[in-house]
Amino acid sequence: MGDQRSYDDRDGWIWLDGKLVPWREANAHVLTHALHYASSVFEGQRAYGGEVFKLSEHSERLRKSARLLDFEIPWTVEQIDEACREVLRANQLEDAYMRPLAWRGSEQMGVSAQNARIHLAIATWQWPAYFGEEAIQRGLRLDIASWRRPAPYTAPTESKAAGLYMICTLARHQAQATGFDDALMFDWRGQIAEATGANIFFVGDGALHTPTPDCFLDGITRRTVIELAGKRGIDVIERPIWPEELERFEQCFLTGSAAEVTPVASAGPWSFEVGALTLQLRKDYLDLANRRLSNS
To answer: Of the listed 19, 54, 160, 231, which one is catalytic?
Structure first.
């Protein structure tokens, strides 16, 4: 397990608005717009061997997420990349999780916030397997969430926005309270969407099947796994997937920067094996992230 101390009471450095500040001093006021109206966006990314995997892709998505929430981050992709490297060096970490976060400040209170200052913070810490090594070996047990991913005309679903994770927290709390590891979420149509913080894939007849990301994030890890599968000659079918189809799939796994590639043993009433294809793609992903596999 990682450090169990509260996240506001640790040693180290956090990059905040252009400079490194002591960890405990990286604070925001209680009347910050983001705290009241969820006007914040973030990234989750991992460093392997001192380098953040797909760093520029994450920085680009952070800026895109902000624009979808109608604000512009006043740092370029290149500046955000360098800030991420700086905070990793300052904390003397090689293998770590990293969280860039951009938000509207406290200059304006109320729904409108055109005059609020835009802040950017970047923190990093040691965070081993998101679900734990034991869960990876046995496969995750997923509950079926009672909350559904919203339609794209009801929320900026292409943004990694903090507000979109409210129902994810509720779904995962409910799942964990009843002995599950996480929850599988359907979308507003009743189709398979994703887990609470990771995309989902299924294996059937030697091919990968994954929901079309039209109301949830097309994850960076998701796209990486699709590329890795293609290099192995594995067909990847992106399409609408209905719950009743799950009984015919043999394997299932989740993908995400925190989850990496994690096998799933069950989702509600449907069971899957922790199979060779899932484990191979997990190995391929970790090899690539650790630069043991060519990305050409």
So the answer is: 160
> Do residue 98 and residue 176 come from a single domain?
no
107, 239: one domain: no
CA–CA separation, 169 and 195 (whole Å): 11
- Expressed as residue numbers, the domain containing 19 is 13-125
Active site residue 160: yes
Return the CATH number at 113. Answer: 3.30.470.10
Which pTM was predicted? 0.94
pLDDT mean by block of 10 residues, the chain; 296 residues: 80 98 97 98 97 98 98 98 98 97 97 97 90 85 98 97 98 97 98 98 96 97 98 98 97 96 97 96 96 65
| CB within 8 Å of 270: residues ≥ 6 apart | 246, 247, 249
Does residue 197 belong to any structural domain of this protein? yes
